[in-house]
Structure prediction request, 118 residues.
Amino acid sequence: HVQLVESGGGSAQAGGSLKPSCAASGDTVNIHCVGWFRQAPGKEREVVGNIKTEYDTTFYADSVKGRFTISQDKNKHMVYLQMNSLKPEDTAVYYCATRYSDWATFDYWGQGTQVTVS
Prediction:
């Protein structure tokens, strides 16, 4: 099992930056991929991006490409979401989640952190 805790959300003005983080504990050695997702009020959850922990490769949704950057600190079991050039439409609860392979589902989820852009 993996436990995930997000932090570092908050409020920002349009054009500003935030850097939520995701702290992992438990069975971290087998984590293959950490994903970031978001859900705005009244909308379905959507993919923000992910990072493959072994290769340090990243993927981003078109809506955030060029503005958001996912990084990791393997020693601390932390994954970060650097959010720049924020827009009001980025307002959502942001979640991190993990999976053990490309064919597995994201089985472990954090509680989420609120990001509000005005």
User: Anything to note?
Assistant: The radius of gyration is 13 Å. The longest strand covers residues 92-99. The chain has a mean pLDDT of 96. The CA atoms of residues 9 and 69 lie 15 Å apart.
